[in-house]
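Email to the structure team, subject: tRNA (guanine-N(1)-)-methyltransferase model.

Hi all, the expression group asked for a predicted structure before they design truncation constructs. Nothing fancy, just the tokens so they can compare against earlier work. One-line instruction: predict tRNA (guanine-N(1)-)-methyltransferase, return tokens.
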Amino acid sequence: MKKFDIITLFPDVIEPYAKASILGRAQKKKLIKIKAHNLRRFSKDKHKKVDDTPYGGGPGMLMTVQPIDNAVRKVRNKLVKKKTRVILTAANGRMFNQFDAKRLAKYDQLIFICGRYEGIDHRVEESIADEVFSVGEYVLTGGELPALIMTDAIARNVSGVLGAESSLESESYNQTGILEYPQYTKPEIYRFRSGLKKKELKVPKVLLSGDHVKIEAWKQEQSKKRSGK
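Reply from the structure team: attached below.
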């Protein structure tokens, strides 16, 4: 069973998504396990404080090293044979992509550290985290959403999690960065209204032709167009 341990100040944010849909079913099948850990439980401060003012001045508060260090040590799988990777979510991190998702799916345990406030003491990045990832060129209020995004993307690459694993082969970004082709389902013609204008939205004729060679060629062409290649 592959473990995803998410260290956060807001475990209630993590749990509903982790229990829903594909991730929820995968947990029931014991293919994966997703667990949120409340960072305050690992603070040695009598008030369970996990942040403090930055040295040298500056706005906001920084998350301190001690609770994070203790949390990682506590949740890390102690079995020597188990492969573990500690991931910090941060705006300055390397952009997470599909190749990272496939690579990280090979680990037995992934521990995510979710930032909050103004940021995290840099010593966490230097000495505790193995990798630092961002999910986009924008700033979020915390690392919980990035941790869930990465967990979702990685879990899809775990054997048995997807009902039709063959779909992974043609998904966007799984073929050397090429995006997936457009897809259509019934009805063949949908009558669309925009204001006073009416328009018939039709499925491309090639997909109705039954000619699998032409259909495959169309899919590849559309994928390349979407990918700008």
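The first helix runs from residue 11 to 18. The two ends are 39 Å apart (CA to CA). Ping us if the truncation boundaries need rechecking.
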